Every structure is written in C-alpha cells, then in structure tokens.
C-alpha cells in the first residue's frame, strides 16, 4: 500500500510538471491538495510522510474522525465540501481553510464563530462555472458583488476562487468552465480592490488536471489518481462526480 501511494504521488507530480511545461508555467506555482474523502487516515499519513502538505475533506465527520492521527502531522486541512451553517463551529475545530464559501449566511456564521474565537480564517469562494444544478457555488455573474461584500468581513481572508469544472465530457467541452474561473479572477483584478491582487485558482482533479493548469490553476485537488477508487457500499466513489 505504501509503495503504491508513493508511486502514484510521483506520477501525479510528474503530470503537474509536464502540464506546467506545456503551459509555459513554473511548477512551483501549482500546489497539490490531497482529496481525501473516504480515505483512511493511515493512507493520508503515508502521503504526508512523503512530503505532501495540503489535504481537503468534504465532510465534517471525516475531519473529526481522522483528527487523532493527523492533528500532530505537518498538514493543512482544507474543507472542500458543501458546508452547512450548523456544522461551522465543528468544522472550525479542524480546518485551516474553507474552499466552499458560496453564500452570505455561511459567511455570517463563519464571522460569528471566528469572532468568538478571536481568529481569522482563509477562504476560497466557490463558483459554479459549469452552471450545473447538481453543483454548489455562486453563479459567475454574482461573484464580484459577493467578493466585495465578503471583503468587509474582518475575520475572512479571501485567498482565491474554487470550482469543479464540467467533467465526463470531451476535453474541448471541459475547457470553458475552467477558463471562466480565470476570467472572473481577472475581472476582480480589474476592480483594483486592495488585498485582492493575488487570488489563487483551485481547480482541476484527476480527470482534468492538465486542462486546469493550462487555464491557470494554482491548486489541483487530486484523490483517485493517488489513492485509487473508493468504495461506498455498492458504489465506487469518484472524486469527479459533484456532490
């Protein structure tokens, strides 16, 4: 198991390196985040010991259940799933960043809990760039006004934008939903808002890693290509399927 995970990590990093070369980018500009939904903590530990420093969980329960093993390891734990307001207090016990901020009432609850704890939190704004009803995230046309509003929340540090692109289609059809996130970021830049001139783009998974990097991704969220398919009851979970 250990050798397989390490071998897979090497392959993924090589894919990132190759994609960056093709795009004329420096590979140091693209971070790898381990997508660890349903992945046992011991497998995650192997990846951390191999040098990985970022992981993303979709469920509060998994953050909690894996905490005993992971809490003392050098890993940033991002929350990348849909976050209900009644789970905010618990998620904040474990997460160092929320990548799925997509509505004002969630921002309000985060602000409330963070003020109580006298701390700040890094966040990414989630955007539904594929306009799919099955996916969470803001409509692209609503992002700029939302960002301006969130900028007034003193406990939230806006670090970037996140999306799940259109998947399981021909590559040519995947590109627009990825490119749109970069376009939205550039529109934000054009507003000249203080503190919002270095936004990261979190996009790209096992299926569309290369396309995402070509379109400007700074963080790819990879699970299946590292840990393999995960079984949930009678079904195989695939990271590329939206919640």
UniProtKB/TrEMBL annotation:
Residues 49-229 form the Alanine racemase N-terminal domain. InterPro entries: Ala_racemase_N, PLP-binding_barrel, PyrdxlP_homeostasis. The modification N6-(pyridoxal phosphate)lysine is found at residue 37. Gene3D superfamilies: Alanine racemase. The keyword Transmembrane helix does not apply. GO terms for molecular function: pyridoxal phosphate binding. The keyword Hydrolase does not apply. Its cofactor is pyridoxal 5'-phosphate. Coiled coil: none annotated. Pyridoxal 5'-phosphate (PLP)-binding protein, which is involved in PLP homeostasis. NCBIfam families: YggS family pyridoxal phosphate-dependent enzyme. This is Pyridoxal phosphate homeostasis protein. It comes from Flavobacterium anhuiense. The lineage of its organism: Bacteria, Pseudomonadati, Bacteroidota, Flavobacteriia, Flavobacteriales.
